[in-house]
Amino acid sequence: MTTLAERPAPVTQKMPLPLRRPKATTGVWSWITTVDHKKIGIMYGALALVFFVVAGLEALLIRVQLFGPNGTVLTASQYNQVFTMHGTTMVFLVGMPMAVAFGNYLVPLQIGARDVAFPRINAFGFWIVLLGGVFIYSSFFLGGAPDGGWFGYTPLTSSPMSSGFLPGRGPDFWAIGLIFLGIGSTTSAVNFIVTILNMRAPGMTMMRMPVFVWMIFVIAFLTLFAMPIITVALIMVYTDRHFATNFFFAPKGGDPLLYQHLFWLFGHPEVYILILPGMGIVSEVLPVFARKPLFGRAVVIFSGIAIGFLGWSVWAHHMFTTGLGPVAVSAFSLATMLIAIPTGVKIFNWLGTVFKGSIRLTTAMLFSLGFIVMFTIGGVSGVLHSVVPGDTQQTDTYFVVAHFHYVLFGGLILAIFSGFYFWFPKFFGRMLNERMGKINFWTMLIGFNLTFFPMHLLGLYGQPRRTYRYDTGMGWTGLNQIVSIGSFLVAFSVLIFLVNVIFSLVAKRGAVAGNDPWDARTLEWSVSSPPPAYNFAEIPQVAGPDGFWDQKYTEDDQGRLLAIPSGGSTSAKPESDGSGIHLPSPSIYPLVVAIGIMPIAYGAVFENLIMVGAGVLVMLFGMYAWAIEPSTEEH
After folding, report:
1. Has residue 469 been placed in a domain?
2. Dist. CA 454–CA 169, nearest whole Å
3. In this structure, is residue 22 part of a structural domain?
């Protein structure tokens, strides 16, 4: 497949002018109209970081409410809305966009491409995720936010509007908003798959791709097949509420368990959509700071594929107490134990990479090592949930809350911070302060364990999850106070990170990074920091799995590293200014199409056909203008 960035200039009677993205690369308009995968990656990351702060504030509200018995900070209704939005935000507006952020920025660079396969669809995906987040959060001002949990179990969310049981619009905002976000996730998945399969540099075979690219590849397929499942379930929730279809309304013959099957058939692959990018980040960071190749690299890759495949076979371990029957329960219990094998294999590979390495304890390395330990703890408690009698006791207690936070926060978030500290110099050309970074790491690690480890004990002592207050005599006060103090320590660590970013980037106090400050191994470090719009003046030739490392070093007869005199330059020629390189031109129309979906969504919530019609017209205009707009401009 020939991509726009690879096509030769058209033959004309006059000398062809080079077609390049316009030079207006600064200012707000350049960001609004950009289709550059790097800028879109930065915008995804900034968006996810904003929502991470919002979700953190929601978590602090929850912990202030539960600091002592009979809390009065939030009412029952407010508490339900806050914890629902906290979970929804962390999963759909932090975890998934953050994975797309790193994938957008790094995948083309790591495979030696100049952009993603569909740059404008890439921009559309970002705008629709941003507007989808705005849409869901606007529910706070339009009648109340969703309050049925981030999983939206029926009949809490599907009771008909006319029943009076749930007169609010919160479940409608939740269902339509997630459909909204699913469109963006699906477009990103298609883009990643086509880019990785068709745009790799010469010599970049599948098994030479960086592990991070492999993990993005796996989650792209998971997303592509998982999102339609939740979309179907959400459409059924909406039609139950507005058209009395009664898919899930038991008094009219529906089955609420059908929703649970649909949700968790999406929801458990979703767990791996969130965690596999973190595994990919760690697999890139550890070899650099251990100064060793990744131990058992092929095994790490195939373990990631196995996790993605087996993730489809364990959804019902969330439903052991719903009366599935002994055969189904036994099968899903066995599958849950089985999926721990490739995960454990990865952990041993990471430890093998570190073993006897020349370790540099940078902030990025510390976060990756912290990931291994915290994720292992979460994995062990996850295996406990495969034991049906134990899971029956732990279900709907704080033990489960502890488990999935060790997996998702101790896994994904620690890995994301490792990635930030590792690639920040490449993204922005400046280093983050290492001393502040290490304070960030230790306060986060200590605060994280103070917050979530006592939840195991609270669960074993019987505290149910999703309860907004508890009585004095329950014996849970001391542990809840430790949890709340830990949560504020985590918030303090995030504040340190934000100050570090401002210190480095806004105040321009961070040291200038150079192209390769870590002596890294993959191709993105072979270009300037930040990279030029065209990424590579000349498409690199790849000779091994560590594409850039192989350009910098060779070995003598005794296996000792020898630096190659060229110093890892991708070309012996002076660096080109990119003249003659074809790149797609900026466009406003991806944003216009995304804006058109907003009134359609609001019209669906409020049953307003005029709003729906207006949104359709805007969307069709944007699509038409998008179709006829030239894909390139002459420079």
Report:
1. yes
2. 36
3. no
Residue 631 backbone dihedrals phi, psi, to 5 degrees: -80, -15
Q: Are residues 510 and 595 in the same domain?
A: no
Alpha-carbon radius of gyration of the chain: 25
Write out 102-113 in H/E/C secondary structure: HHHHHHHHHHCC
- Asked if residue 233 and residue 138 are part of one domain, the reply reads yes
Give the residue among 605, 497, 476, 572 at the shortest CA–CA distance from 173: 605
Does 4 have pLDDT greater than 70? no
Contact of 497 with 56, CB cutoff 8 Å: no
CA-based angle 507:512:513, to the nearest 5?
Answer: 125
The token duo for 345 is: 């294999």
How crowded is residue 529: how many other Cβ atoms within 10 Å of its Cβ? 21
* The two structure tokens encoding residue 565: 């005199």
How many domains, in total, are found in the chain? 2
Cα–Cα dist 138/598, whole Å: 11
Q: What is the mean pLDDT of the chain?
A: 89
* 620 and 500 assigned to the same domain: no
For residues 548 and 178, the model is more confident at: 178
Asked if residue 250 is part of any domain, the answer here is yes
Range of the domain at 565: 35-584
What CA–CA distance (Å, rounded) separates 461 from 451?
A: 16
pLDDT confidence of residue 397: 94
- Same structural domain for residues 602 and 556? no
Whether residue 22 has pLDDT greater than 60? no
Enter the DSSP assignment of 321.
Answer: T
pLDDT digits (tens, 9 = 90+) for 10-19: 333 333 333 3
**Is pLDDT of 164 > 70?**
no
Q: Please state, as a whole number, how many other Cβ atoms lie within 10 Å of the Cβ of residue 167.
A: 11
Let me know if residue 29 belongs to a domain.
no
Q: Which residues contact 519 (CB under 8 A, 6 or more apart)?
A: 288, 291, 552
Which helix (H) or strand (E) element contains residue 420? helix 414-428
Beta strands in 328-454 (DSSP E): none
Q: Are residues 231 and 339 in the same domain?
A: yes
Nearest Cα neighbor of 103 from 211, 230, 231 is: 211
Q: Which two tokens stand for residue 43?
A: 């915008």
Domain of 335: which CATH number?
1.20.210.10
520 and 551 assigned to the same domain: yes
Q: Looking at residue 507, what is its pLDDT?
A: 86
pLDDT, mean of residues 13-32:
57
- Closest to 411 in 3D by CA, of 438, 435, 380: 380
Q: Are residues 578 and 595 in the same domain?
A: no
